Amino acid sequence: MRIAILHGPNLNRLGKRNPEKYGTKSLDGIGEDVDAAAERLGVSAVHFQSNSEGALVDWVHEHHETLDAFVVNPAGLTPVAYPLLDALRDTGRPFAVVHISQWHALDGRERADIFADSAAVYLAGAGWHGYALALEALVFKATRP
Description:
InterPro entries: DHquinase_II (IPR001874), DHquinase_II_sf (IPR036441). It comes from Amycolatopsis bartoniae. Pathway: Metabolic intermediate biosynthesis; chorismate biosynthesis; chorismate from D-erythrose 4-phosphate and phosphoenolpyruvate: step 3/7. Homododecamer. This protein has a single domain, classed as Rossmann fold, CATH 3.40.50.9100. The protein contains five helices and five strands. 37% of the residues lie in helices and 18% in strands. A five-stranded parallel sheet has the order 2-1-3-4-5, covered by helices on one side. By secondary structure, the chain is α/β, with parallel strands linked by helices.
């Protein structure tokens, strides 16, 4: 299996931005952990981050035929990124949604997650480890009848 790990806006600032909320691990550090989990599971991970929804959509369009699944953290795009959601749905591939924090109740406000109903796997609040958990869950689902 080949699985894309997509990171939305501001996730390139992980480790520096609000460490009390998001932890101190950088995006590169998360990528290393995901790659180690992928190797353990016998799959490969491909990483892409952009602060632009259009770049994320373009990347999905360009690469979806070479991928089996997606792990996506839409970050601040979560309540509004219908083009990204449509691009992921249109691939016909399963996807997992990961939020490092309890995104739906961040700052005490209820927030909608437009990706939740379409996701094969949904993880919120597991910190950076949620990426590896999502990867493992997608592989588990793909290899079980």
